[in-house]
Structure formats: structure tokens, C-alpha cells
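In this supplementary section we document a worked example of the pipeline. Step one takes a protein sequence of length 232 as its only input; no multiple sequence alignment statistics are reported here. Step two produces a three-dimensional model, which step three serialises into C-alpha cells for compact storage. The input and output of this example are shown verbatim.
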Amino acid sequence: MKNCLFLVAMTFFMLNVHAQSLNLSRDVFLPGEAIEIAFTAPATYASNAWVGIIPSSVPHGSEVENDKHDISYVYLSNRSSGVLKFTAPKQTGRFDFRMHDTDSNGKEVASVSFEVRNQIPTSVTVVKESNVENPVLWLADLQFTPGQEIKLHYKTPSWVRTNAWIGIIPANIPHGSEAENDRHDLKYQYVKSSADGVLTFNAPSNPGNYSFRMHDSDANGKEISNIGFTVK
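The serialised model returned by step three reads:
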């Protein structure tokens, strides 16, 4: 009986781990360009759960703080999956889509970063491969103290290579290039394809904004998923 209860509890936990997600088709947009972002969310979230565009410089974690800085937002209105439509900010810079479990003193539960530029580069990060499973990164908390242990939940798709990896990168490093992220990673771990588990990291010693970034390969690959967090 104990084993059965444990299995049920773990199944429920893992379902909730992967229940909230945000996915973009690419990570660079023009000012004012239309953006569609796919999402999943637990059915238990409040009807006023919301997703908004927040400057990446704003610390992660607090729904109240994000609410003060959001550029635009959409309520989920009890939807557990779908596509939300936004317009890219008119000013260039780095931004996040951030999901919150409620609009009443809630918490940030998921994020994905993107950049607004005046010109789209010839090669941009594709966060989602066509018609296949998405990569997932999830944190139970988005604020940590220097050196604090971090449990990162992840799910890798089948199409990543054997040397796929996840690393901690300062938030000011532009997204997209695996080679560029590799030059700036503070810590990293390799992951296998079609894997579903938990990695243990320690938060950077210096306060600031960072992101976990997943890459499909360690050989001129691409960044395929990310989630931001703050050390303070």
C-alpha cells in the first residue's frame, strides 16, 4: 500500500511539474511584431492567472513586482492550454513572457525569454521543433540566495543529441547561440535525450539575474529552452 501511495504521489507531482509551460517559435522579434506563445497550465490555477511581457531586468518570482512592470498581459481564464497573442514591445531590448498562478498576490511559475531587435538575424533560435515534443525547464521557486541548492526539473525531447546540456548563464547574455552561452556558462550538466528528471545546482555567489538554458548539442548547437531566476 505504501508503494502504491508513493507511486500515486510521484505521478501527481510529475504531472504538476510539467503542467505549466511557455513555448515560442523563435526568440527574436521586430518591434511591434505579432507574437503567438503556446502555453500549458494546471486546471487548478485561478481564473485570473495571467501571462505578461516583463523586461528581463526585473527580478523573477514576485507576481506583484511583475505586475508593476508588465508591458502587456493576457488572462488565462481557466484555460489549461492554448495559444496567446501578443504584440512585441516597440522598444528594443530583452524581455520575458512570465506566467503567474493568480493576479492576487500570486507567484511567477514559468518564463521564457526573447529579444526585440530592429533586424531579424539570419539564424534565430527555434524553441519548438515541428510536430514533436517540447523541451521543459521548471523551478519550484525563482528566487535564491547565493550558493543555495537549486533543484531544476527538466524534460528533454527525443531529437536532442547525446551531448545536450543545461547551464546557468547570466541574464544579460543574448539568447540563441549555444557557442555564446558556452563561453559564459557558470555551471553546466549534460543531459540525455527523452530524459525526465531533476538536476541539482548551486546558485551563483553573486546576486543578479540568471537563466537556466537548455541546448540540443555541445557542438555548435542551439538554445532550445530557458527559465530565468534571481539571486539576491
